[in-house]
Amino acid sequence: MRRFAPVLLVVALLLLTTVSTVSAAPPRWGILGYHVVQPGETLFCIGRAYRVSPWAIATQNGIVNPNLIQPGMVLAIPAVYASLPPGPVCTPQITPPVPSCSCSSYYIVRSGDTLTYISLLYGVSMWRIAECNRIYNLNYIRIGDRLCIPNP
Description:
Layout: H1 5-23, E1 31-36, H2 43-50, H3 54-60, E2 74-78, E3 103-108, H4 115-122, H5 126-132, E4 146-150
Antiparallel strand pairs: 1-2, 3-4
Helix pairs in contact: 2-3
């Protein structure tokens, strides 16, 4: 058992250095722009303004405690879209990019429709349909919505 101790020590040290290196890697998200925190703003209200995950904003900006943001901080807003619960919405300071889409047709959502079904119906990726219609939750489309079907 004593002869395995040095081997176990080396393995443990390698694991520790590997784990710390992986966890220290910065996120590689695209940045929509930058937001200057105003008095009274929270990460959730900023996230709602851009339909972006507040946790991704915190991670992108190295914020350990999301409750401790200060007015005047400049936050990079990552392109990590999310559906957030209702609540206060901050005033957006940047305009998210509008995808260039030319609609070959339009589709009115009916009961039971999914983006997967619609994408198969038209031969267009559901991701492209979602992008052109600014749908951030692929599982949430509403009956009666008029969807732009982009060129394939």
